[in-house]
Design goal:
about 300 residues; alpha+beta; TATA-Binding Protein; Endonuclease III, domain 1; Endonuclease Iii, domain 2; 3 domains; two-stranded antiparallel sheet; lyase; class I DNA-(apurinic or apyrimidinic site) endonuclease activity
Length: about 300
Amino acid sequence: MEWHAEKERVILRNVAQFDLQQTFECGQCFRWRRLENGNWLGIVRGRVVEAEQAGRDIIFHNTERSDFVRMWHEYFDLGRDYGAVQRELSRNDPVMKEAIAFAPGLRLLKQEFFEILISFIISQNNNIPRIKRIVECLAQNYGRPVVYREHVLYAFPEADVLAALSEESLRCIRAGYRARYIIRASRQVHALDVDALGKMDSGSVRQALLALHGVGEKVADCVGLYSGLMPDAFPVDRWVRRVMETLYPESGTTNEAIVAFARRKFGPLAGIAQQYLFYFARENRIGMDNPGSEAASSTD
């Protein structure tokens, strides 16, 4: 991959295995939206960027060289050879080969820890459209506004801002019982050293996350995976369980058995494997009891 910066944009040339739509719509993030011109607009760590796909080229508008090197390169996992990842996962596995062929441009984002923590606390027993609405409403009410052209976006709120709120003040976002989890987890997160978590094994990270209010096993695995702290995490809920029972009948019938199977089969690539399978199954309605339902990152 070659890239260069000019004016207020960075251009990536001939990027393999990178599709913006597949990456933003696979269920791992909730704040990227499609513009009328076909580009994608998002705000990450208070920085607004407009991403454009032009064939195999990717153009990031409203950014510069220093931001790309410091932030976007890691966020979009541009240092990983996804061709090698896909070859390894597809080896002797026709199911995974088909899933990857369906979405070869899907990438695993490395997202900001606190935002992903609160977002997946909100995701419990929820569907993707509603998760997006609640997360966006939270940012609009308690985040810092950032103007970009004709758009006003909102940075995700800081932990100390949410920690100072009452459940009553959060009624406006209609998060229901999750409001108390948002507040309590925001108060607890100050005691977490995220840099130290990054040096721990996945099991230790998971235990630290499970100590937070509102964080169960599925949420812990999602937070660990999408923040980059647990790349081998394989989040399982009742829908993913049905998918695995359909695509890999030998994986077992319990969450624990399926996670163990995935880690044996996919090893350190279990996290990205889950994303390929989740997106492939959701878009092809595999494992859905109700054809009219909206598959989401919902938890049991």
